[in-house]
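To the team - fructose -6-phosphate complex, inputs and output below.
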Amino acid sequence: MCGILGYLGRDNAVDVLVNGLKRLEYRGYDSAGIAVLQQGRIEVRRSVGALRNLEESLKRESLFGTTGIGHTRWATHGKPSEQNAHPHCSGNVVIVHNGIIENYLTLKQRLENEGYVFESETDTEAIAHLFAFHMQERRSFLQAFRAGIRELRGSYAIAGMCEAEPDMLLVTRSGCPLVLGQNENAVFLSSDVTPLLAHTRTVTFLEDGDLGTLTPRGVTVTDGEGRPISRETSHVDWNAEAVEKGGAPHFMLKEIHEQPEILLDTLRGRYSYDAGDADLLDVTIPLETFRQVRRMWIVACGTSWHAGMVGKYLLESLIRRPVQVDIGSEFRYREPLVQEGDLVITVSQSGETADTLAAAREAKRLGARVLSIVNVVGSTLARESDGVLYTRCGPEISVASTKAFTSQVMAFYLFALHVGRTCHVLNPEDGRWWLDQLAAVPGYVEHVIKHEAELVSLAKRFYRKRNFIYLGRGINFPIALEGALKLKEISYIHAEGYAAGEMKHGPIALIDEDVPVVVLAPRNQLYDKTLSNLMEVKARNAPVIALVSEGDHSRDVSADCVFAIPDCHALLSPIPLAVALQLFAYHVAVLRNIDVDRPRNLAKSVTVE
Ligand code: F6R
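Output:
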């Protein structure tokens, strides 16, 4: 997730771009850059770190031009560095990009054979060279742009300009947002409307496949073949803060709603359907070593630890190997029996959590290899690990983790599939079957989000309760823990997650008619047993909220309230269940008037012990 911006008008584009990028910084902030046409020449300025570094550099050496593009980066391919920062140039073309190009390695190989030299580790640079390549063959930038985007696979919003045609910006999108704006003096493009609000409130949202041409005469939109398309203009009356949240009242809700797209991004370009295998090119540990791994460990904290627990169930059931899961703060001080030949998988959204980092260092000291499942590219954990599997979920602003969790679980699916194939536990046909299942997951999440109103009703019924219990079994036991954690951290209601079968060994004493029990009972081999646990709590008068599989009617008799997730494979149910519980917790907290994005006593990144 990055932010892109463009301006063509009468004023200095530099000021418009820098001020606009400030509004897009929430989309990424590991590096930033701009390009302007100064006296007919492309001039690029890029800086690592926050936008103020770019501002400083522009103060030291100013630029002037009335046409320009800008970018604020959230690294996916290549660490945060000046070289990897956008814009990227080739010949007399310069571009900025938000998204992931799945076929960039194939394009890169082809373009290198044509003599193009790559200076960055990004997928984006392949787009710049591709446009330059097509410009050699065709006459106009527009024709080259069209020919180039036809060859791209993946998700993108791209804006470009060219020295040969200085009075024009070109833009297109597929799977990433893009909005155009104009006033009597200038035309604008942006990843969202926030930067445009200072200039205009009349905007046009582009759709996938649209190609926008911005000139001093205004904006035109065509399809990829050049046929005109008419897109309605909208009037925006949001305030700037609401716009950053995509119109959502809180970042948490925005991030919950982003999950179908995020889960696709985690998968994108990371599998070979023919081989029935995950294609984890970006993991630098030689993946054959998994065959020789003596023992696997997973270490993480908080929500990431819950994702790790799902990973354990998954790996054990798919590849039949023992996996040990540990909390970071416990692992580092208990002299873990890690040895050379072991693989320790650390899981962290931030990549900066002190206990997880210390656990990774301890594991390395003991001779193990460390593979990290991390969101923030270039974070300390990512840098210090032997291999990294990035979750690519974009900046998570809400303190309560949502999209990071589901993308970590998705990363475990890919990893487990790959280990299963490498160790020949799964054959290509099994692998293809798994890939079909994984491709369906974003749709399951969409289904849950579509039924959000039912979760709002549940929240309205129960938000005044003081205690909750969450029960799950097998791979959904960690989801019970995660559901309880989400509720307690943002609503301040006491909630406990339990393995459903463990209830009668003590916690059942807590139950009465005032303690709602959330039972995770999707269809799986433990369904009957979970239903028996549901009956046990019901018999003690607890109000029961059951999360079941669509089409399951047997529960109607026993639960007070029911929410149905899509009927999916048992090992995939953690993701839709987690999203339903995130939404439930969110709406309970809102009804309790809590500042959801800033819950008391919590910090987003725990860099102390
Ligand atoms: C809960 C939450 C925390 C984090 C934990 C680890 O919503 O966000 O429990 O999961 O602090 O953080 P990372 O994943 O950054 O290591």
